[in-house]
Amino acid sequence: MGSREEKVRPIVFSGAQPTGQLTLGNYLGALSHWVAMQEDHDALFCVVDLHALTIRQEPEVLREQVLSLAALFLACGIDPEKSTVFVQSHVPAHAELAWLLSTFTQMGELERMTQFKDKALRHRQNVNAGLFTYPVLMAADILLYGTHRVPVGEDQKQHLELARDVALRFNNLYGPTFEIPEPFISKGGARVKDLQEPTKKMSKTAESELARVMLLDDAQAIMKKFKKAVTDSLAHIADDESGQPGVTNLLNIWGAATGRSMEEALAHFSHNQYGKLKVETAEAVIAILEPIGRRYRELNTDRSYLWEVLQAGAAKARERAEGMMVRVMDRIGLPLERQRFRG
Q1: Residue in 82, 204, 224, 316 annotated catalytic
Q2: Three-state secondary structure call for residue 297
Q3: Same domain for 61 and 182?
Q4: What pLDDT digit, counting tens, does each position of 293-324 carry?
Q5: Does residue 114 share a domain with residue 46?
Q6: Is position 201 within any domain?
Q7: Is residue 276 among the annotated active site residues?
């Protein structure tokens, strides 16, 4: 008999696109929480390269970015002994389930997706069907593994709601098949904003280099960006997102980087000196990112190890995904050639 301590852990799935380097916001708002979640969850973390294809990619650049992002996952603390780390396109069931789920998704639901509207405006020369059905592929990513929890930011909540709606619709028709995923929003989640336009989220696509801190920026670049961060002329340090968004952004970043609360941040910076706030925030960020950069450079030069990790992760993911695909196909009446996989 197994130990009573071997409890079934909740399943968590998340991923990131291999389109450009990740930002400090991606780390403090997502990756750092992935690292923590792998300790008490059955965790799957994926380089979602199929999602990246809604925008034209240079083939060699995309291949390089897939491996580089995998290296960055590991450098940030994702442990392949604790988590399943893989590339989306290495598990064909993601695309297969997306097609099946598209027949349970209504056009009106996709038309309401705000991200589609935003991206269609920014990429008018290439408003492709993949951009429109992107949320269905995201639903497949999540539902394929019986995911219980999905770490999401504000910009992805709508997509998760669609995944839940599609899963419920399928279950109501064919019986319990999919787990209904819940959003996971960390209590310590940092809202990292643009350093030049602090009312906006920090983004890797921001026009100004000074607006964003990238995970692989060196110490000099990080210090420069924080010293030039927009604040105001009030000479008063307060947590006031509407009145002092730049100052509040720096306080949030310092708190997330040091593990301190907003109350502790306000007490620490009660001197009301913006210069010190900027420098100390930069120093706290450098203390986090320098070890990540060193580990990344080691991993990114050891491509054989990276491939071993990704191949092992894909094999585990394919085995898990196959069980779900057999169940879904059986439910909807598709003839099963995959009898050997049925449990």
Answers
A1: 204
A2: helix
A3: yes
A4: 999 999 999 999 999 999 999 999 999 999 99
A5: yes
A6: no
A7: no
